[in-house]
């Protein structure tokens, strides 16, 4: 009973909106609502009782209304609020956004209000009527507004609250900036009455010569809809399949695709049509699997030359959101010699994955199941599942994504083990074509030169992620790494998903002095010596490409609220360690016979 009540409470707190999540929104008829929105900062959360959502105006001079969106300052959307106004840099709490827009209704058209992301909790009203709520700061959501939108003038109000919460995912503690706001774009999307909601078109697992997938339609004519057609004109391929009663068409057909790879990021134009709707996408085809301790891309072992990346904008200390930001970060990764990035610690914006697809960079995508969460609370698993679901639905057609990661550095205990087991099973049920992983830092020192990772989570994963900071945190010096050996409880491929140390760009000294570029470069030298001897190593994503804001990093004059473990500063300056890793990756690439493409 107690459990049932808890669950009900949890479900109502984190109710994901019931609206279908429209895939590939960029290909849809859309009206952008980006730009300047009016904003009211509401630290005492009084906006609901004061009915800000009505956007009311005094009707007479004696009317008392204690807010006025029109006279309130603007915030740019997309964008976090923290970097737009000095007084909001550390702000955590609700901020109300409002804007007017005019709309022309069209017959036989359904309209959705689509948000790329809002951190963390968003409550949304259209013309004073509540559309719903969404929890989770990094995944898209939409609301159908077909019967609610006015033909003419409209007002949309969104209360975005980035308060950290014990029942949230992530929870109270993170090592990144809690950027709040409408951090990604907002738009109206128009679709036909019966439309293609989502689809998966990928090479079948273990088969390089067959496409496997499904198309889901949504609408009034689902029961008697026609066939779905998958059309790949360049390959003269057209395949039709009947929709089932639930509006789903499942297919499998032969296709000898030219494979997507970092050396040849080939994308095909694919058109999916059904009923009166059609969607076009650019899709790459590749296989990804493991064999023993190897990761195989298109059937061949590949070493993942990676780096970890936060969704932090180069040059401006803000949440990244634009294709320009994405391209800058991925170009730096490519210059470093990478063929792989770990997009930590939450789903980055959709364009990031599309740019990676085009640039030929493989991607590890992650959900923010990070550090200690309240794993006893059933709401945590439901929330994590919802975020994973929405990330998979958004990105499942991107060849670049090879790994879904379900967690980072979570403490070992039975409730956590059970939650992550469920989450791994859920990930496989959503997408059986990719590898499942998670990063663990729960290794132990067997003796001063032998380290062992024995996290029971390993049983549920295809690939083991190891975070270790030898030479930075703990007693070891960077040089100690030369003697250290690793053993793993599971005979699976290992990616060292984090190692590194802090350095302030331009700070020089000897290699024993913390925060100098020399310290960091020396640490990388010794780490790379150690990792080269790691028997199961299939790749690495050192921490991290670029310095990023973090409220935990207070050391004045050096950190100034930035985590300085970047290989590149937040202004794009390359530290010495960048070149150490670059040399290592160039050698790796040459040994594999595939020099990295520029
Ligand atoms: C970690 C975390 C990462 C931190 C990093 C650090 O283990 O996974 O989010 O930023 O260490 O710099 O301490």
Question: In words, what does this structure look like?
Answer:
The protein is α/β, with parallel strands linked by helices. It has 7 helices and 33 strands. It has helices at 2-13, 323-335, 350-359, 378-395, 414-430, 517-532, 576-591; strands at 29-32, 35-41, 74-77, 94-103, 109-115, 121-126, 129-135, 141-144, 152-161, 186-192, 195-203, 210-218, 227-232, 237-242, 248-254, 268-274, 277-283, 288-291, 294-297, 300-301, 304-309, 340-343, 362-366, 401-408, 435-440, 443-447, 450-453, 463-467, 485-488, 494-498, 537-540, 548-549, 562-563. The strands form 8 sheets. The chain has an 8-stranded parallel beta barrel, surrounded by 5 helices. Helix 4 runs parallel beside helix 5 (414-430). The longest helix has 18 residues, at 378-395. The protein is globular. The termini are far apart. Residues 1-16 have low confidence and may be disordered. The site of (2S,3S,4S,5R)-3,4,5-trihydroxy-6-oxo-oxane-2-carboxylic acid has 10 residues, from loops.
Question: What are the SSEs and their pairings?
Answer:
Blueprint: H1 2-13, E1 29-32, E2 35-41, E3 74-77, E4 94-103, E5 109-115, E6 121-126, E7 129-135, E8 141-144, E9 152-161, E10 186-192, E11 195-203, E12 210-218, E13 227-232, E14 237-242, E15 248-254, E16 268-274, E17 277-283, E18 288-291, E19 294-297, E20 300-301, E21 304-309, H2 323-335, E22 340-343, H3 350-359, E23 362-366, H4 378-395, E24 401-408, H5 414-430, E25 435-440, E26 443-447, E27 450-453, E28 463-467, E29 485-488, E30 494-498, H6 517-532, E31 537-540, E32 548-549, E33 562-563, H7 576-591
The protein binds (2S,3S,4S,5R)-3,4,5-trihydroxy-6-oxo-oxane-2-carboxylic acid.
